[in-house]
Automatic annotation (TrEMBL):
Annotated DUF7745 domain residues: 7-176
Superkingdom in the source lineage: Eukaryota
Protein name per UniProt: DUF7745 domain-containing protein
Pfam families per the UniProt record, alphabetical: DUF7745 (PF24924)
InterPro entries documented for this protein: DUF7745 (IPR056647)
Lineage of source species: Eukaryota, Viridiplantae, Streptophyta, Embryophyta, Tracheophyta
């Protein structure tokens, strides 16, 4: 039995109007404290990440990837108003960094991929600037992304419930591991 089958089974009980999981005699809603434990990042140890109203400039992405800003502007994409970069471009960059032996940058981009694909998955094979902003806030300022992950979980559950009825397809394999 897959480790994630229970979570997949649980997703069918998500109740959109109540924004929780509803069973015969009780309701279950993951709390902030539970997410702190799941992710392994207590809020008491760092300030929470809160969106500041503006995503990082493309120059920040270029600095993170250690490429020119022109190269980042060339690979960036905009899907339905969500700006970001394709996963394939980030994976190509990882391959080159592995060949060069630049492990610090490799780990930064690998962390960004985890944030963009596992923690904040809005479009398949795409890392948007919102995930980049959250990742940089954690890496550079030590801000805790637990609140954003919890909010994104509910947003994702709501989105798929509205879009597909009660069918939910999700990736949670890294949610239970430490992502800092």
């Amino acid at each position: 039995m897959s480790r994630w089958m229970p979570l997949s089974a649980l997703s069918q009980y998500y109740n959109l109007p109540l924004k929780c999981f509803t069973f015969r005699d009780f309701q279950l809603a993951p709390t902030l404290e539970e997410y702190e434990r799941i992710i392994g990042m207590p809020l008491a140890k760092s300030l929470p990440y809160l969106f500041r109203g503006q995503y990082p400039p493309w120059a920040s992405m270029a600095k993170l990837l250690k490429v020119s800003e022109l190269e980042v502007l060339w690979i960036r994409r905009n899907w339905n108003g969500l700006e970001g970069v394709p996963r394939a471009n980030l994976e190509d960059r990882l391959y080159h960094l592995q060949q060069e032996g630049d492990w610090r940058t490799f780990m930064d981009i690998y962390g960004l991929l985890i944030y963009g694909i596992v923690l904040f998955p809005h479009l398949k094979d795409y890392v948007e600037l919102a995930a980049t902003d959250t990742f940089l806030a954690k890496r550079d300022m030590g801000e805790n992304p637990v609140i954003a992950v919890l909010a994104n979980t509910y947003c994702t559950l709501n989105h798929y419930y509205v879009r597909n009825g009660k069918v939910l397809r999700c990736c949670t394999s890294l949610l239970s591991s430490r992502v800092d």
